[in-house]
Amino acid sequence: MNKMTDIDQKKCHPMVGVPVEKLRPKQVRKNLELTLWEKLYIFEIIRGMYITTSHFVLNMIGFVFTPKGQKRRIFTVYYPEEKVTLPPAYRGRPVLVTWQNGKEKCVACGLCEIICPANAIKIVAEERESSDRYPLSYTLDMSRCVYCGYCEEVCPKEAIVMSAEYQGLAERDRSNMIYSKEQLLRSEESVKDRIEYIRRIYSKCNY
Amino acid sequence: MLADMIESIAKILFIFSVNIGFFAPVLGWVERKQSAVMQDRIGANRAAIFGFTVIGLFHSIADAIKVLTKEDFVPTGANKFFHTLAPLISLVPAIVTFSVIPFGGQYTIFGHDTNLVIANLDVGILFIFAFSSLATYGAVLGGWSSNNNWSLIGGLRASAQMLSYEVAMGLTIIGVLMVYGSLKLTEIGMMQVNLFRWGIFMQPLGFILFLTCAIAENKRAPFDTPEAESEIVAGYFTEYSGMKFVMFWMGEFLEIVTISGIMTTLFFGAWHLPFISDQMLLSFFQFAGPNGAGILSMLVNIATFFAKVSFFIWLQMTIRWTLPRFRYDQVMKLCWKMVLPLSLINIFITGLVFLR
Asked: How much is the ipTM here?
């Protein structure tokens, strides 16, 4: 039942927006006076009804004989059963990325704590014997988070990224929405697309 | 005597069950589902009994249960008597008007003459106009008695719009009455055996004008200014909930069925199949004996009639989901400056042709 749906059946392109040279001003009819043909109403109404009826008939045929392997005309997604593949630009729950050995990449520099516009992040830093810094506790208050993505943008170590997780973000109790470091750790593999995306968009080189 | 009573009770039960039991709940489903299909959506299909959804038909049952268990709310300061009376007034005419519409011809079954119309009145079409104008009171009373500004505006708009369009609707029908020379709906239906004697070929302009007026009279889009959701909440039935709300809602849907029935009777050959007269149908079913032939041709005619009615219901739904709402002054302008003069011209031309 848990099948994934590609809306366009092609990978979303990471380039955002329309190129400037392709933008054209829309043709707007400034003249508000109707022509005689339009004043007769009936032919324009028939033209409109032709459009809606053609949609109706094509969709009815599509419901009865569902075409296989074709682009879908109807874009409705049956949400709990079907899920869409999200584009890499999607900003879901912020998560902490780990190295291969399971240790967090975060060095507790505190930049995300400072940049966070909602004061959602609290970090307590600590040093290992090898004089590596790491966060002793990393508290993310998801009841305050506004999903702006500044923490990800400011992070020098790609340690915090906005993942594609969008389920289980709502709770009945606010105290359940304060996440500790252990709850936020994700493997690098699971957020690979997003890391590639932010390297391209924020021009981060690979450290 | 007994046979007549049984016959009329059977006819009343048939029409009542078809209208209230079939068309009213199914049209609620049709409105949602057809709009969805037209707008490239899927529409309601989640209500399930034992995992079966039946393309969303169970939503009608779910709606009925919801409506029956809802609170029956009367706002403070409302006139309780008229507030209760208004939905009844708007529902009853919609049910009653179907009694003069013939849904089949005349048949002789077991030596008993059957005429498939509940009340074969000589003034059938006038009866329909009289009762459909009563429905105005439902909207106006509901709007006035709710003690709500939006309701009052909706009621005022409904009164102005429905009264204006009644005048035009009466005039659009006169052309048809001149062609067939009768007010009796069964006779008008009888005369449309030949395909080229159908009302649509005799009165094409009259048909378009009547369709316009009928939709305006029913207060549905594009003429739904009395209940314009984006302007005045829900117009005259803003303050209604539960069963009373459903009465307005059912009245609207049954009026669609009635309008489709009138259009079928007046313009689209009533219960006749094109190119097939009643005698041809009887001789075609001769193998089943005289009684069987009568019953079979009756069933074919009833099926034809309701197929035509279903087509016009579909047409009205398509119009409702295609056109945006007219502004209030445009509605009035369309009535008094376009439909009324055009219907007068239609009468004039019809008179010229028939007096020649």
From this structure: 0.78
